[in-house]
Give the backbone structure.
Amino acid sequence: MIARPKQAEARPAPRLYLLTPPIADAPAFVPSLAAALAAGDVAAVLLRLTDAAERTHINRAKAIAPLVQDKGAALLIEVCVDLVARAGADGVHVRGMTAFNEAIERLKPERIVGVGGLATRHDAMVAAEAGADYLMFGEPDERGVRPAFEAIEERIAWWAELFEIPCIGYAASIDEIAPLVTAGADFVALGDWLWRDAPGVIKRAAEQLRLPGRAA
């Protein structure tokens, strides 16, 4: 078995996973992030960074990390495996199996390694067997393209039915949250659209996370 079969009982209500916009000026983003974290329960924040020198990346991450971690959330860094320990982050999120295999080798077991961009069920199962802390389904690729929403729902429902390792469903709008919860997502990721009104979106999202059959 790749992972222990899920038990036939109500799973905990999902929690939110926030993706930042690509950050160039971390101090300028801090007020928006603080307002988002104050608006509701957030499990993790994925810090996305614009291109810059390594030292600049580290300084940006260090400006964000205490705010996130003081709220009891995990700070993950997108792609940049080298930055995780030096920036005081909790882990990394990568795309695809090549990047995932490198991250697992370098960061586990001390740090979180999450993975998205998995094209096939086989890749998802291999990632789980190799030690992924979570899998993300439905996030856009580098061109902003994502699978059909029906395919995302199907993949999450398949995973939630069979495996214990958490899965994250990426919601491209407030209207996608409830269907992802119904499908069985353990976390719901909110991306760039969130930041137009983060406190308002998080409060509305919290209502969508509480569905029958999911424990409080």
Q: What stands out?
A: The helical segments are 26-39, 54-69, 83-87, 96-107, 121-130, 149-162, 177-183, 198-209. The chain has eight helices and ten strands. The radius of gyration is 16 Å. The longest strand covers residues 42-47.
